[in-house]
Amino acid sequence: MVFGPFDPSGSDGLPADAVTCARLGCHALSAVTALTVQDTASIEEIHPVSPDLLDDQSRCLLEDMPVQAIKVGGLYTAETASVAAQVAADYSQVPLVLHLGQRAPLPADAADEDEADDLLAATLELVLPQTDLLVIEHLRLAQWHADGDIDIGDAPSPMHALVAAGAEWVLVLGSPQRPGHYANVLLGPNGQTHTWPWQAPPDRNGDAGGLAATAITAMLARGLEMPEAVRQGLAHAEASVAASFLPGMGRRIPNRIQPQ
């Protein structure tokens, strides 16, 4: 099951995630968190669904079909974050992948900034402790740390702080290792670490973190253990981005049905 927005361009969100899941042998269920007005270049408007509607649609599906994994991405209000957290708590036996990286318009005023702060706080306080795997881009994590949105306390790094805050595993994408070299870094229980090389996507490519999170969720649904699910999910995402195409005047779209 995927919690996320409906992207009418098909470049991201639920339509794209459904294609990724199908390509990897899974059937995707959708819990729509928002409807967007957008094209391949940018998001113009976001219309979040009500918390009650999100709760009703997700539980209706969960009571009908067995679900092997859940991905949460594209939460837009603190109230919908609370719904996702409660659903995750009620289905705690199901692996949960949380992607923090959904594109959205920049806050237009102080009220928008306050809402964004409330959403991040609710996500970290309510959803993160239910999370089996958190997926986040290094640049976003570094910015939150610099802005004081994440308090690392005595932890050696922000990703260690996220594990201490409740995530069982944390995957940081594009983490700098040394000048000119980057890696995808997976940190897990007892400090165990796995790394894979990270390649910069082609020009005009969008955020590939959501694609990677969905592919990893599909691998977990198929029964793979976390490090192997991450390895295979990252490989699929990298191949899809490498084969990306340019259908419009905006960003390139990963080729989610590329041959394995």
UniProtKB/TrEMBL annotation:
<keyword id="KW-0418">Kinase</keyword>
<dbReference type="InterPro" id="IPR004399">
    <property type="entry name" value="HMP/HMP-P_kinase_dom"/>
</dbReference>
<dbReference type="InterPro" id="IPR029056">
    <property type="entry name" value="Ribokinase-like"/>
</dbReference>
<comment type="pathway">
    <text>Cofactor biosynthesis; thiamine diphosphate biosynthesis.</text>
</comment>
<dbReference type="InterPro" id="IPR013749">
    <property type="entry name" value="PM/HMP-P_kinase-1"/>
</dbReference>
<keyword id="KW-0808">Transferase</keyword>
<dbReference type="Pfam" id="PF08543">
    <property type="entry name" value="Phos_pyr_kin"/>
</dbReference>
<feature type="domain" description="Pyridoxamine kinase/Phosphomethylpyrimidine kinase">
    <location>
        <begin position="7"/>
        <end position="250"/>
    </location>
</feature>
<dbReference type="GO" id="GO:0016301">
    <property type="term" value="F:kinase activity"/>
</dbReference>
<protein>
    <recommendedName>
        <fullName>hydroxymethylpyrimidine kinase</fullName>
        <ecNumber>2.7.1.49</ecNumber>
    </recommendedName>
</protein>
